[in-house]
Amino acid sequence: MKKLHLKSLVVGLVFGVMLASTSVAFASGKISAVYSEMKLLVNGQAKSLKTKPVTINKTDYVSLNEISTLLGYTAQYNDKTKTYTISNKSSVPAKEAGVGNVKGAITWQYNDFVGTKADVGAKVFLIPTSFDKKSITADESNLYSMIGAVPKGSGLQFVKVNGFGQYELNDIPAGKYYIVISSKNTTRNSDEDLSDYVVSTLKPLFADWDTFVLFNLKLTNHEVREIEIKKGKTLDVSYDFGNTYY
């Protein structure tokens, strides 16, 4: 019987456009193969795949290259030896990573006549994408959520927007972060659910998720995005919240 190599099974089925029907027949029988609608979470965060997963006989198959990348690895295939090599991505040691800065202007629209005003008192949270919520105590987590008190050595950052509508965080270790900006002067419809992106991105980072939502997301407009701070660079992250809900 002809053997199916890993490349044939995973790469061929996932990357090849060969499934004209919901099943593929072999001499030994029939294999059911359909596109999968499964959702993918990596460390609690929703991720999307460029190549649609395939389900074969109730087993899901995904792109080895894409999964390796999402998990922080690289995958290389040697066609001569029929071998996949999966290895860690090269990274810069923390001591060489350096520091950078992030700043911005946060505004809102008072009305059609007054126009743009500084969102004085808006809160800016900066959270490493790799943050482990178990690295701080429950009390520390609550204080950070409620008043922005930063636990020592946690890597978390916080600042409020000043009277000119500006904020600035300096000497931040280079790397990827989630920035959360919570408006002071605009509100949102609290009956509406938070976006799937906000929940899937932030919930895994907070042991006291409900507290963070209540104080910073549920009642006020907010902006959440992933940013990268680079060594010796200042990143501008500005935002206008527009009009208030009421």
Automatic annotation (TrEMBL):
Segments forming domain Copper amine oxidase-like N-terminal: 42-89
Domain of life: Bacteria
Name of the protein this chain belongs to: Stalk domain-containing protein
Keywords carried by this UniProt record: Signal
InterPro entries documented for this protein: Cu_amine_oxidase-like_N, Mao_N_sf
Secretion signal, residue range per the UniProt entry: 1-27
Source organism of this protein record: Cohnella yongneupensis
